Amino acid sequence: MQGKEKIGAMNKGEEKFYEFIEGAAHDLQAPLRKISTLVDRAFKKDGNKFDEATMEYVRRIESCVDEMKLLLNGLLELVREDGTADFDEMCDLNEIARQLLEYMDEEVKDKRVTVQMEALPVVRGNMTLYKQMFKNLLENAFKFSKRNNDSFVNIRAAPVNDEERNKYLLDNKKYYRIEISDNGIGFDPSNDEKVFEPFVRLHPRSEYVGNGLGLFICKKIVARHKGIIYAEGNETSGARFILILPETPWP
User: Mean pLDDT in the chain?
Assistant: First the structure.
């Protein structure tokens, strides 16, 4: 399991991660602005010729650009240490998950994934960061689904067990336990901590695209909210990620 950690303490891999985020933040601004400009020009020039299907594509492009901007800002909030990020927003995790699943609908259909979700709690925190966290966890589950096999992802809330509370929770605040499990390719249980290290890839790069940062970002987001995340993997039955989140990150 992953214990609590001091946010400011960084190893070389984490320093590399922060450098990567700062560089990506700068590099991604220009193409996002260009996409917005080109879509706007196309709409102004030929918008009256667009049929309803084309208009829907335009709306979805605009929505994706807005989503990218929000996620980019969220990553910048993640690496910011000046205390300006807002962690006192009311975050309905049901709504966050629902919006993400709607946004990722094509990927869900392409991967033939059945998603089951039970009622999730409402907590205080940073809405953008929580959205980024759930997005990374869902993308991870979809990416590593088994080929030629109907896949499932289960999202459920459960009580924090006594072992977790006694060993990892150092205060008397109210916590919620959330599990995201799948029946994908999983991973060796000996790597249950390694999966959260930056730029680590447990599966062949040629088969599964990615930069090895998704779960590390999740770990950092949970830490910023004073929570816990850990993973349980099995190479025959998939993976499970357990989040233990406080009702509010502050006393």
Answer: 82
